Amino acid sequence: MATQILPDPDAAWRAVLARDRREDGRFVTGVLTTGIYCRPSCAARHPKRENVRFFATGAEAAAAGLRACLRCKPDEVTREAAALAAALRLIEAAESPPSLEALAAEAGYSPFHFHRLFKRATGLTPAAFARGRRARSLTMTLETEGRVTDAIYEAGYSGPARFYADAKDRLGMTPTRWRSGGKGETISWATAETSLGTMLVAATERGICRLSFDEGEEALRRRFPGAAIRPGGAAMAGLLARTVAAVEAPERPHDLPLDVRGTAFQEAVWRELARIPPGESLSYAALAARAGRPEAVRAAGTACGANQVAVLIPCHRARRGDGSPGGYAYGLERKARLLEREGWRG
């Protein structure tokens, strides 16, 4: 069994204060004054920080003389984690997405309970997760070698018709255009002045594919060499205005459409970035752990750097484990100003 890695203590304490269910199973909270250990999401009154010690597992907490909380039952998380792992193995091995009933039987739960457990843990329904897994597999195959039809079958689709019905929205463009680097895709762009400087916004018909600062059309063409690049004009005025508003108030949620893609791990990191509350930050180590690969700290930083839509996916909320700001594609001064607007106090 692999050794479970504790998250950064400050990040763990923030998870406890937020009663973050996503951290359940990653560590337990030992309260030295009461002699119990709990899930991070336990609804009991929060102890004082100086009375708390974090453990990787309930077994470690028990070995230290603590007993399991009767309210949140932290040891049951182990069973849930094992059930999810079994279901994920079945999804990975199956040629076509398994039924909810088959997954629930593999996990040892009723379909209703398993569906709720799976969505709470992954943010997706089992069916959506399986579709995303096949689409990511196809994307990786298309980026390496092989004909499009071969790649479709290799990814587990029953045929091209099933793929086009199931995964077109996920990829955002046809497989042939994906292979050719966006050839045939039309990207409109415009710039606007903001308090952070000149902002460039580029979008396909599906959503924003690039938000950057201090860039122009030439840089956009280098980034998307296979696409038709054109000025957005009046048709893009509404989207541009909404994007400016989002940049000027990064602490507010936005509903801007995005057309961005990455590896499975990159997209997991981006989802976790979007879940960080305004005014807070996470270390790259904590991001890696939340994305399911606690050993991939450097890759988490790389995923932040690969973010194509600054501010909208808030990679400015990521930092190094020692508390220093780390890097930022558009300068640390902009990163500091964004965090300051959100109320971050370090």
What labels describe this entry?
DNA Methylphosphotriester Repair Domain, Arc Repressor Mutant, subunit A, Double Stranded RNA Binding Domain, 4-stranded mixed β-sheet, 4 domains, alpha/beta, 346 residues, 15 helices, single chain, globular
Order of helices and strands: HEEEHEHHHHHHHEEEHEHHEHHEH
Q: Low-confidence stretches at least 5 residues in length (pLDDT < 50)?
A: 157-171
Mean pLDDT: 80
First-to-last CA distance: 36 Å
How are the strands of the biggest sheet laid out side by side?
Answer: 3-1-2-4
What level of helicity do the residues show? 40-55%
Oligomer designation: single chain
Number of domains: 4
Judged by helices, strands and strand pairing, the structural class is alpha/beta
Radius of gyration: 22 Å
**CATH-defined topology of the largest domain:** Arc Repressor Mutant, subunit A
Shape label: globular
The largest sheet is: 4 strands, mixed
> At CATH's second level, what is the architecture of the largest domain?
Orthogonal Bundle
Beta-strand proportion: 5-15%
Please tally the β strands and state the result: 10
Textual characterization of the structure:
With 346 residues, the chain is an alpha/beta fold. The protein folds into four domains: 9-74, DNA Methylphosphotriester Repair Domain, CATH 3.40.10.10; 76-179, Arc Repressor Mutant, subunit A (Orthogonal Bundle); 186-248, Double Stranded RNA Binding Domain, CATH 3.30.160; 264-342, Winged helix-like DNA-binding domain superfamily/Winged helix DNA-binding domain (Arc Repressor Mutant, subunit A, Orthogonal Bundle). 45% of the residues lie in helices and 12% in strands. It has helices at residues 9-18, 58-63, 76-93, 100-107, 111-122, 126-144, 148-154, 160-171, 175-179, 217-223, 237-248, 264-275, 284-290, 297-305, 332-342, and strands at 28-31, 36-38, 52-55, 67-68, 186-194, 197-203, 208-213, 228-231, 282-283, 318-319. Strands 3-1-2-4 form a four-stranded mixed sheet. Strands 7-6-5-8 form a four-stranded mixed sheet. A hairpin with a 4-residue loop joins strand 6 (197-203) and strand 7. It is globular, with a radius of gyration of 22 Å. Residues 157-171 have low confidence and may be disordered.
